[in-house]
Amino acid sequence: MRHLLSTVDLGYEDALAILDTAEEMAAVNEREVKKLPSLRGRTVVNLFLEDSTRTRISFEAAAKRLSADVINFSAKGSSVSKGESLKDTVQTLAAIGADAIVMRHWSSGAAQQLAESGWVDAAVVNAGDGTHAHPTQALLDAFTLRRRLAGSRGVDSTGTDLTGMRVVIVGDILHSRVARSNVWLLHTLGADVVVAAPPTLLPVGVGSWPCRVTYSLDEALAERPDAVMMLRVQAERMGGAFFPSAGEYTRSWGLTAERFALLDSRGGQVLQQPVVMHPGPMNRGLEICDAAADSPHNTVLEQVANGVSIRMAVLHLVLNNDPEA
């Protein structure tokens, strides 16, 4: 694996290889000394041209735990704010000696452009591009679900997929790179994926995605999902009114206390206790109630912790890539 750009082209075997490698990294993260020499002497640049907390810190922790040298780069305070192009920016980073560039960019397709441009020889990892893709978020979500599934069956999660699981992804699908990446990856791993959203928050072409679409959250929850992934309403990307009001959105599409109680009482297809997921940050009271956000069934912090293991696995694999393989 030379680059990681999206989950659309990530095959079953490659996805499992990342998840299985992450299991090994998780064992490292449970040790007193959380360190491996895997990337000693390598330089990883975190090129974040959009604001981020969880993803940027997670990639930084992952690279450092693999003994890499880490350079954190943001648009604020850099020549990007003076109008420098992406090409000139990344070529400057390459001249400094970047072996991998982890990039978050506001433009959909930016990571693909960088990987295919020939501007740099570095490995490229997409940390989120516009509304297009966020592959490591989808991988850490799948990793979290796989561990929950294995725990419920009392088996080792290594080598297993998500066959039999039903996952409902709810809310602002239109602006969510997390939703796109999760739909494709979860489908590849064998899960049954349902997308639940108002028509105004569904993208054109969603019918070609490997998932079922419903306009009723209550209908989706009645099918006893194993996981409900609530998405943040991305108000900063909305140029108009996509729903009548915040209160109306919560009544129809929010995981309210009543919906959460019903979800908990019904059980899932394979998990006796369904889980609530969220990529963060959560808008409490809008898409998710306090009872669900603070419940032990909520995997938000578990997802954050698993994100370090996944990103360690990805950096290890792209920087120890066999060009003949």
TrEMBL record:
It holds the Pfam family OTCace. Pathway: Pyrimidine metabolism; UMP biosynthesis via de novo pathway; (S)-dihydroorotate from bicarbonate: step 2/3. It comes from the Bacteria. The keyword Transferase applies. Carbamoyl phosphate binds at R54, T55, R104, H134, Q137, G280, P281. Keywords: Pyrimidine biosynthesis, Transferase. Residues 164-317 form the Aspartate/ornithine carbamoyltransferase Asp/Orn-binding domain. L-aspartate binds at K82, R177, R232. Residues 2-146 form the Aspartate/ornithine carbamoyltransferase carbamoyl-P binding domain. GO terms for molecular function: aspartate carbamoyltransferase activity. PANTHER family: ASPARTATE CARBAMOYLTRANSFERASE, ORNITHINE CARBAMOYLTRANSFERASE, MITOCHONDRIAL. Catalyzes the condensation of carbamoyl phosphate and aspartate to form carbamoyl aspartate and inorganic phosphate, the committed step in the de novo pyrimidine nucleotide biosynthesis pathway. Heterododecamer (2C3:3R2) of six catalytic PyrB chains organized as two trimers (C3), and six regulatory PyrI chains organized as three dimers (R2). Belongs to the aspartate/ornithine carbamoyltransferase superfamily. ATCase family. This is Aspartate carbamoyltransferase. It comes from Micrococcus lylae. The gene is pyrB.
